[in-house]
Amino acid sequence: MGQSFGKNLKVTIFGSSHQEYIGVVIDNVKPGFEIDMVKLDDFMQRRAPGKSRFTTKRKESDKAIFISGLRENKIISKTITALIKNNNFKSKDYNNLNDIPRPSHADYTSFIKYGKDMDMNGGGPFSGRLTAPFCLAGGIAKQILEEKNIKIASRIKNIGGIYDKSLDLANPPMDELEKISQKEIPVLDEKKEEEIRKLLEDVRSEGDSIGGICQVFGENIPQGLGDPLFDSFEAKISYLSFGIPALRAISFGEGLNSINMRGSAHNDQFELENGKVKTRTNNAGGIVGGITNGMPVVFDLIFKPTPSISLKQKSFSIREKKEKDLLIKGRHDPCLALRTPPIGEAILALTVLDYLYE
């Protein structure tokens, strides 16, 4: 079971949703950098559960506990190990799911692969809870990149078909995106924010769930990262992205919209600005031929609705081998996408830093 990634900067995520601790090991990091713990905690809190009425009622502090690699917040070793304590889990809410799997969840495929040996309480290793240590590593990587003037930001682009305002992908408003990062619904258009808020209230009251899109931006990403074919920059981003539960698709630049465009509109034509090569548009999302071209890197992460809902659903008993109705207990996000912007930023930060460590 692969819970490690990275070629030069190696990261391993461990633990499970209802175990006492989850955590991360970051290997081959360069010593000497001092981590801003306040900034790291702010980053972690954007993803943490229980911070909004539109997310799960499970409350976790998600405070990082560094057990090796740091002294007075400075990296002093090539390997960092950090823990996050799980406090507010209720495994009894999941007892029936050991026999009656949730539709569109990993309960059944986990049983096919591992039988009853895997701890699946709270979704086990398939849970979005494991994105907490992932964000811990990504938050550190983002700080290291900021020292190199590489900026990373994100927003919610779409919830349930309601789109935030369109942006110029060649000139994303990084400062504005940073300002909205702590908002309950991180969108730029306040009118759309109210529409999304109403939709989420309706979905939550109905015991249902809804999907959405997180859009990630990277500015001052160096040119020349990536290679053709299977080592492309997009492939690296996609590899990490599909390790995030509930992701259904990823789209770069104009992405799927490009099927409705002509080449004359989609092609990013070149221009010279003070001797620097740029493109007038950024429909490619800053990546061409699998290699970064110096324009902002832009990609969308498309998430399905939360599979754990309060409505009655059709399932079956693994033990009795007969169909049964399922009512799911516990606390679940009506829209997982709302908590994904820091995850998207972590994906980009860790990918870029891995390349820079070559």
TrEMBL record:
Gene Ontology biological process: amino acid biosynthetic process; aromatic amino acid family biosynthetic process; chorismate biosynthetic process
Keywords, sorted A to Z: Amino-acid biosynthesis, Aromatic amino acid biosynthesis, FAD, Flavoprotein, FMN, Lyase, NADP
Name of the gene: aroC
Keyword Lyase: yes
NCBIfam families: aroC, PRK05382.1
Domain of life of the organism encoding this protein: Bacteria
Its EC number(s): 4.2.3.5
The keyword Lyase belongs to this UniProt entry's keyword annotation: yes
Name under which the protein is recorded: Chorismate synthase
Group of enzyme by EC: lyase
GO molecular function: chorismate synthase activity; FMN binding
Family: Belongs to the chorismate synthase family.
GO cellular component, one term: cytosol
SUPFAM superfamilies hit by this protein: Chorismate synthase, AroC
InterPro entries found in the cross-reference section: Chorismate_synth (IPR000453), Chorismate_synth_AroC_sf (IPR035904)
Pathway note: Metabolic intermediate biosynthesis; chorismate biosynthesis; chorismate from D-erythrose 4-phosphate and phosphoenolpyruvate: step 7/7
